[in-house]
Amino acid sequence: MSEHESKGLQAKLERNLLPFLLMMAIALSVGGIVEIVPLFYLKGQAAVLEDEITNADGSIKFPELATVRPYTALELAGRDIYIREGCYLCHSQMIRPFRDELERYGHFSLSVESKYDHPFQWGSKRTGPDLARVGGKYSDEWHYQHMMKPRSVVKESVMPNYPWLIKKEIDGEGIMKRMKAMKTLNVPYTDAEINAGATAVKGKTEMDAIIAYLQVLGTMIKFDDHFGKPEQRKNYRE
Q1: Residue 8, phi then psi, degrees to nearest 5
Q2: 95: exposed, middle or buried (C-beta count within 10 Å: 0-12, 13-18, 19+)?
Q3: What is the distance between the alpha carbons of residues 96 and 150, in angstroms, rounded to a whole number?
Q4: Dihedral of CA 85/86/91/93: which sign?
Q5: How far is residue 175's CA from residue 156's CA, in Å, rounded to a whole number?
Q6: What is the reported pTM?
Q7: For 171-215, what is each residue's pLDDT tens digit?
Q8: What is the mean pLDDT of the chain?
Q9: Neighbouring residues of 168: CB distance < 8 A, sequence distance ≥ 6
Q10: Distance, CA of 22 to CA of 35 (rounded, Å)
């Protein structure tokens, strides 16, 4: 046996594709289970499914969860821009049930909050802060400046500038088509809401849209004593 050869497990796996793929599948499965299992027993994660929000008589069991709604036309347009510009590559929208995250960002993320997201923006990549509850944290003006010149409000930011967002208006017909597409995925848009979509975004820029999207994140559920009041958010800035 040469000095470059090894009998170690890693060396053997690297030379055998099928066992290597099997070990990868097991490792990824364990990671997924660790993230999913807490959703079934943590306080505040109850009633995350649509049929669990109502009682047998049709009354609302958890009003706090029933307030989750589809995005408005402008918010939906902003979400599309958020994805198009790759914002999700640096910002997750998932607060995990760990003390450091609760202290920094607030209540851990509930799956019901993303039930109208296709695709959802959970994940774990964080070059910048998590944005699950950024809505209302800053003013519209702050977000505008942050998108135009990030380092003017966060000195250490590594985020690029997005000045082109103020130059292009939202396509009304395009947003109506996207709302129709969301309806096919069981997002409960009415025909009236879809038809009004073009009017709702008329004259609005892509900057207006992405700010509207950021400002709604984490605001649909009003946490009370039952679901747990949000922890104090510390050091939220980048």
Answers
A1: -65, 160
A2: buried
A3: 26
A4: positive
A5: 35
A6: 0.75
A7: 999 999 999 999 999 999 999 999 999 999 999 999 999 999 999
A8: 83
A9: 205, 206
A10: 20
